Amino acid sequence: MLEPFNECSMKTIRIFIFILPVLFSSFAKLQAQDKDNSKINNFKLGLEAGFNSYWGEVAKPEHVRENYSSPYSYSFHILPTQSAMVYHLGFKPEYFFLRNRFGISAGLRVSRFSSAFESGNSYPVMWLLRQEDIHTEYVRIRSITQNSYYVGIPLEIRFFPNRREFRFQHYLKLGVALNCHVHTKYKTVFYDEHMHIHAGTVEAQLGKPYSFNSYIYPAIGFKIGRSPSPWVNLEIYCSALITPRTISFMKNGAGVGCQFSVQLPVGKSAPVGSSK
Could you tell me if residue 125 is inside a domain? Predict the structure, then answer.
């Protein structure tokens, strides 16, 4: 069950509620000032889905013990890099201007950041559960999976290099996503199944990601469709995490991603490069 929105999440929603009317008002003024487009509505409403793959330097939890001497005659090591997956769903309106070659958009996006921490070989991770005076207690862990959920605002600007619109057309995009943490869920798999009673302690020691994160993503995309019909867009992009501890097991990260979206025209639309 999801936790209630925290303060940061509520701030994000309030910012979203504030930004969209301001953008729509600004777009309306731009359109009113453009006499050539005075009878054309340049809005499109889009639905999107996508994913990112990130790689970065591993952030080893402080409770992990790599040098451990005991009757268990084995050792393990931690991989130097860490990977993570990000999945998102959302919607955003887009406004086109300057002969419809530029588009600017802002919307609402729900994301899930998923990553797993595990040993770099077949042996389990030794986790320091508690230490009191001369008494030390460890548990053996196979893996810890973290799924964190965010609600955020994507801000994007798009440019069509071609002056005329074609049914199949490429474009360039630059975007930034501003996200606030809503909920994090862990799944801890122990080497000894009866030790699952300590899952809550291990997860409490891990803590939560920062309440806010952001990443930037330049992209190249391909549009299928021609105004005033709906558009289908496919984008491939690189992305880089801007904020620290976006993912608990990763210090920093960069990666690649893909996004699919469908855009529906709102009112009459002019083709790219057209002023009428």
Answer: yes
